[in-house]
Amino acid sequence: MKTIISNVRLGEERDKTTSSVYIENQKITAIAPFDSLKEEAQTTYNIINGHGHLLIPGMIDVHIHGANNYDMMDGTTKSIQEVSKKCAETGCTSFLVTSVSSSLEDLLAMIHSVKKVIGHEEGAKIVGLHLEGPYLNVEKKGMQNPKFLRHADFDELDRIFAEAGDLIKMMTIAPELPGGIELIAYLKQKGVVVAIAHSNATYEEAQTAFKAGASHITHCFNAMPTIHHRSPGLVTAALEEDEVSLQAIVDGVHLHPGIVRLMHKIKGPDKIVLTTDALQAMGVGDGSYLFGGHHVTVTDGIARLKDGTLASSTVTMNKSLQHSVNFGIPLTDSIAMASTTPATILNLTQLGKIAPGYDADLVLLDGEFDVVKTFIKGNICKVS
């Protein structure tokens, strides 16, 4: 099918010029000024009027656990499909199915379900797996269940990779634990992005991990030591290292707006990734949930354990984008952080940009950053 998404804004909010995006065979083929749209195109293209709304590349969530009352660790294909649909509804067109620390059996069951769903998603596409744990530091466990936290086990990893193959795209570890540096080498050899969090790594230990190949920080500033002027820690080492990228949960809870602006000022949009870290309360609302073996209460959209510890988030990608802009990050940079940068980090070379040759994964947003339409490979995604 040949489609034109016409009369859309592609640039900054103050830019009143509009464009038309041409799509054929699931790819973007051309971008042209809206006023150049010829009348004869109406006979050969399906024309969708964007009514001056903002069109952005489909957002990519590298860290999401659940949505719509479904936790993807429950081992069912239904849960993964529900998250896929909610992602598409909220402007996310690709995502990494993300685990929490668990038994090996539960992790393998989740991976098995992902393999059944991938290629048959009802909404956003699965572009791989993000294993958050289980090789994490109990001292910075956050909402991770300490019952399942352990040191690197390479026999166990061999079994995990035997089941998952090259679906594992990212793994979050604590490099200061025994076997941590060897684990980085193991994962790098398999082409996995090595991320750090739930870690008590010192500045020096973090530097060693980066030299070994770790290159990403999961939910930066959360579940890791704070910055101290005589004990700078993991965060300072990550901010100082040019090649290390950072995840940001921009929900107005996990990070103060000033911290978001500081991260952006130091790293720029090419090294910051907006992510949700959402649990099954995303799209549902306040209430009680069982997540990662914990009872979690969501009040006013904030998820916490009984002791007050933050337990993931309920933010969606479109609202994370809105918060980022409201916090003072330029629109084009915020879009890059939600779309282009995660695509680059995951080496998804056909995603993350509105340009000829790229997949037509696109999102139309209104002035409140609510999703008007989501396109996956040029097709309107109807999931509600």
Automatic annotation (TrEMBL):
Enzymatic class: hydrolase
Domain Amidohydrolase-related, residue spans: 55-380
Documented EC number(s): 3.5.1.25
Residues that hold Zn(2+) according to the record: 132, 198, 219
Hydrolase found in the keyword field: yes
GO BP: N-acetylglucosamine catabolic process
Catalytic activity: N-acetyl-D-glucosamine 6-phosphate + H2O = D-glucosamine 6-phosphate + acetate
Keywords recorded for this protein, A-Z: Carbohydrate metabolism, Hydrolase, Metal-binding
Cofactor: a divalent metal cation
Gene Ontology molecular functions: metal ion binding; N-acetylglucosamine-6-phosphate deacetylase activity
Keyword NADP: no
Active-site residues from the entry: 277
Listed pathway(s): Amino-sugar metabolism; N-acetylneuraminate degradation; D-fructose 6-phosphate from N-acetylneuraminate: step 4/5
Cofactor binding, per record: Binds 1 divalent metal cation per subunit.
UniProt cross-references to NCBIfam families, sorted A to Z: nagA
Similarity comment text for this entry: Belongs to the metallo-dependent hydrolases superfamily. NagA family.
Matches recorded under PANTHER family: N-ACETYLGLUCOSAMINE-6-PHOSPHATE DEACETYLASE
UniProt-recorded name of the protein: N-acetylglucosamine-6-phosphate deacetylase
Organism of provenance: Carnobacterium maltaromaticum LMA28
Lineage of producing organism: Bacteria, Bacillati, Bacillota, Bacilli, Lactobacillales
Gene: nagA
